[in-house]
Amino acid sequence: MQHLTCDVLVIGSGAAGIRAAIAAKEKGVDVMVISKASAGKGTCTILSGGVFAGTRDGASTETHLKRTLKSGRGINQPELAKILADEGPERLKEMVKWGVDGEFHKGYLFTHGRPTIWGEGIINCLVRKANALGVRFLSSLFVVDLKADGGATGVKVFSIDANEWLTIAARAAVLATGGSGALYLRHDNPKRILGDGYCLALKAGAVLQDMEFVQFYPLGLAEPGSPPFLIAPRLADFGAMYNNQNEDIHEKYDITERPAGERARDRLSQALFTETYREANEVWLDLRSVSDSDWNIDPFSASTRIIFGERYGAKHRPVRIAPLAHHVMGGVCTDPMGATSVAGLYAAGEVTGGLHGANRMGGNALTQTVVFGARAGQAAAAWSKSIPDKQLEAVSRHLNVSGMDSREGKKELNTASVMAHLRDILWKDGGIVRNGRGLSRLVGEIDAMHQDASAMPVTGHARQIQNTLELRFAARTALLILQAALQREESRGAHFREDFPNQDDANWKGHLQVRLSKDGKMDWSFLKVGNETL
Ligand SMILES: Cc1cc2nc3c(=O)[nH]c(=O)nc-3n(C[C@H](O)[C@H](O)[C@H](O)COP(=O)(O)OP(=O)(O)OC[C@H]3O[C@@H](n4cnc5c(N)ncnc54)[C@H](O)[C@@H]3O)c2cc1C
How far is the CA of 45 from the centre of ligand 1 (A)? Predict the structure, then answer.
């Protein structure tokens, strides 16, 4: 069995992971980036709209901070939001200097790209920079277990291409595995973004928080047979949005923020879900009278004129729309440098939780990847220099993959159909509109699913092994989301409980946190927050 070592191991090759790798490499250490697919592929970053919040000249840093905190409904970690607003402009300028093609427009950097991989330019730029510095990229490596030991980190990895196991030991590690949007029936994430990182971090001893806050993007194309295409928020505001009874959706649900798809993602998603799934209505977006200059309202909207306007027909007929699971606000707790509660383990990007609070402002996720990716990379490099060779050797000795390639499991399941069922039930009762009864039922059902998946043999061809292990991560992540959602008896941001429809600051202004107890059970606690000022 192959065993590799490095100073800093980065798990995940989206923008957060690659930016962390660049920062670590610039500190003169040996850096390796591994991911399930090849560098940048199968990431949310490459599928993203490529829109970064944060201005070039820093003039409206305060406005950016204010909007971020307003979106987060009182529970962003304010120190993280301030760093995002303060350092965002510099990090974005740097990206442009490194060759990202884009333009600054009204407080955002719109990178230029082609639908539906607008983020390709971001990935290409970061990979080019990392390669030039000498970062090592290894692809098709699926991390299935992570152990921290005396400040060093070891991982067990399945090589999907080679269908074999290997181990990697590092003096420091950065977890940048993204979120878990693909857990839901309707989603816009790559299909293997299923929450692996939350499970790896939790098992290694890290604390997670805010897992109940899953963001849905309201403006998803829902024409039969169409892909989950994102409609630009400012473009949608020019059109008419109505249901089969011809009721105007914004009026009916009193949604006054504009762009609604950016500033009121939570409430617009709830409105659309209620219409389409609870009231069996359809919701239509009619853009036929939108002028060409309005299609060009911003570079993201302009880039969709041909594909959305012509190929999907939005210029010629009303189109059906429905929300899509998009982003997870919750995740691994870190300090401002990305340090988790596990010595030597850092985290950055969507796998972390705390910056966005209960609802993320559009454009902040990409800015988060580069601001906090850079911080985590720097901190991991500094940490790695404090870990002596003997500690790396000790971690290497303790790593073994026995028991992974097991034929002992008793259960035989069709992973594809179990995953499809998981997505379906999560969408109906664990997503945009929730209630206690539905959540309790789901916790029971998905707990049983997790136990079944854990009893499956890890054997067969490479994709079969990957699917089995991913199903375990997916079910466990779903449980984290559901158990948090069940406990939070209020509505706030992206978490809407129809049985507790109001925000309840007296009892629920704070973070639900979870860690694993010594006997492997989830140990939940609530961290109240005050009205901190910066
Ligand atoms: C369609 C879409 C459009 C979006 N548009 C915008 C936008 O315009 N602006 C904005 O701010 N945000 C946007 N977002 C959100 C934003 O793109 C993401 O939050 C961000 O890109 C996440 O970056 P990341 O590096 O943390 O994770 P990702 O880019 O998702 O990368 C995760 C990496 O982790 C790897 N990985 C996961 N598990 C494992 C494992 N077990 N072993 C090995 N590797 C693993 C994956 O292979 C991948 O390389 C959008 C999201 C989507 C889905």
Answer: 5
Token pair, residue 286, equals: 């009619």
Atom 9 of ligand 1, nearest CA residue: 363
**CA–CA gap between residue 33 and residue 10 (Å, rounded):** 5
415-505 topology per CATH: Methane Monooxygenase Hydroxylase; Chain G, domain 1 (1.20.58)
Backbone angles phi, psi at 218, to 5 degrees: -70, -30
70-110 tens-digit pLDDT: 999 999 999 999 999 999 999 999 999 999 999 988 889 99
Q: Which of 13, 32, 33, 44 to mutate to test the pocket of ligand 1 (most atoms within 8 A of CB)?
A: 44
User: Pocket around ligand 1: residues whose beta carbon is below 6 Å from it?
Assistant: 11-17, 34-37, 42-45, 47-51, 141-143, 176-178, 181, 188-189, 193, 196-197, 230, 326-327, 349-350, 363-366, 369
Asked if 413 and 20 touch (Cβ cutoff 8 Å), the reply is no
Q: What's the rounded Cα separation, in Å, for the pair 133 and 298?
A: 34
Question: In whole angstroms, what is the distance from residue 336 CA to residue 298 CA?
Answer: 32
How is domain 216-324 classified at the CATH fold level? Flavocytochrome C3; Chain A, domain 1 (3.90.700)
* Nearest atom of ligand 1 to the alpha carbon of 367: 11
Alpha helices in 77-161 (DSSP H): 78-97, 120-133
pLDDT in tens, 18-62: 999 999 999 999 999 999 999 999 999 999 999 999 976 656 899
Q: For the packed helices 15-26 and 364-384, what is the interaxial angle rounded to 10 degrees?
A: 40
- Going by the DSSP 8-state scheme, the letter that residue 276 receives in this structure is I
Domain boundaries, the chain: 216-324, 415-505
Q: Which of 64, 127, 177, 329 to mutate to test the pocket of ligand 1 (most atoms within 8 A of CB)?
A: 177
Predicted complex ipTM: 1.00
